[in-house]
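agent> call fold_tool(seq_1)
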Amino acid sequence: MPVGYVLRRVGVFFLVIWVAATINFAIPRLSPADPIKEALLKVTSMGASQAGMEELTKTFAVRFGLDQPVWKQYLNYLVDLAQGNLGFSISFFPARVGDMILVALPWTIVLVGMATLITFAIGTVLGAVMAWPRVPSVVRVLGPPLLTLSAIPYYLLGLILIYVFAFLLKMFPLGGGYSVGQTADWSSEFLIDAGKHAILPALSIVLADLGGWALGMRGMMVTVQGEDFMTLAEAKGLNPSRIFTRYGMRNAILPQITSLALSIGRVVSGAILVEVVFSYPGVGNLLYQAIRIFDYFVIYGVAFMVIVAIGLATLILDLLLPALDPRINY
């Protein structure tokens, strides 16, 4: 692999991170809401005077550096990011943003990561089979209804699943990451309980994404079937299953791998609406709550983590694609 190519890609990666971090810094400040006052509203509800409210607001603004000019806040923001310091939460002070993300991140990685991999595997195989001339009749019957589900948003599917399987049939919990009274540890009892809570949100993600993966793979398989190497393989009398897997799927799956890499990069952001609907303690729910109460530093932390994850996934993909497909050069 040429060293110059690697250095260029790494340089582009850091440039993208800087631009995205700058946008991440600017967007929350477009809101007219004051994050300090939003966090202190509960104090006023307990009868704090207006003067006391203003004094508290000034004290917190100094503590979080929000009293400084915007350009200085921006420089401090970049320096902190370079050091891996995401600061403190405004609303949950003195909790550190990094610690809050580390608590929520495993829940999101397990839920969204596993759901993404399952959806990729099922959708890719289903799409490939649907495009194959010798497709079983059962696939022709079950395929279209599964593809139709891709038109339904995550949260609507989540609400339907809650109503049917949690409210009517009472097979699964209504929401949350684990039952009340359980202690989060690595015991088998807790893992089984957490798994039951994750089934419905994961199922809503799988059902909503399955059609997209299947349609993408089906389109690529239709394209591949007209290639010369497929015609030559059939002319040689090779086994149809070998033609399907070694010649068809192997060449059609490359765009799917690209999409999978980008999807894995987005895993850390979570499925926000799904986590909100199911009250799941993941990063998506954390970001939603931070947006609701204008907690700048939590928004910064989560968004920056997503930016880095997607940028890193793209960088790795750029470096690996030429190795996966010899037709791609540097």
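agent> call fold_tool(seq_2)
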Amino acid sequence: MTSPRRTTPRPYLRADERREQLLAAAADLVGKRGWHALGIVPLAAAAGVSRQLIYEHFADTSDLLASVMRYLFERAHAATARILSAASDDAGSVIRRAYEVYLALPRAQRRALRALAGDSDPDSPELDRARHLMRHEILGLWVPYVRRRTGLTEPKARALAWMLTTASWGITDLVEDGTLSPEEATELLAQVVASAVASTEKTRGRRSIRNTAFPRRRERRS
């Protein structure tokens, strides 16, 4: 007769501590195997807990993915928000400080965030929703600043902000493969952004002068 299998009792944690532990395990799973590997069952196995416990903290897979995204992004998001809220100097200086925040993230975390914010995946609606949320969070940070500096319309400001975001990811690839040092990449990105903002401001200034110098003629009333 076989004796009953002994299980190691799970240490008691407060709800917030348990959720933090699960998020850390989920982030580690994403770092090792990618976003497609993350789900309720894989996380339960990786964390050594039951599926029921996972469901006590996350309503479903969509909630889990969004929560992990925020867990990975929240510190960089808060630091960047502070930089932008206090931004009163030139765009190059703002970009330098914001990019340094991004570079300070662990490499696996940077790659996970970049992968999540990439192309859509119609085969995974849950992952697609998390991806759209990620893009919304990034643009929510940068679009007000871009509009304030350039005077662009909302759609154009969103386009420019996203272009500059993807440029920062691309140049980070060159840091990771040793082509550029972090300092060189930071300076190059700052120069590109400052040039883009200055060019937009100059164009806006020319339009303003042209509209002032050549006001529209009022139609004669009959």
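agent> summarizing second result for user.
The chain has one domain: 15-198. Residues 183 and 200 are 26 Å apart (CA to CA).
agent> awaiting next instruction.
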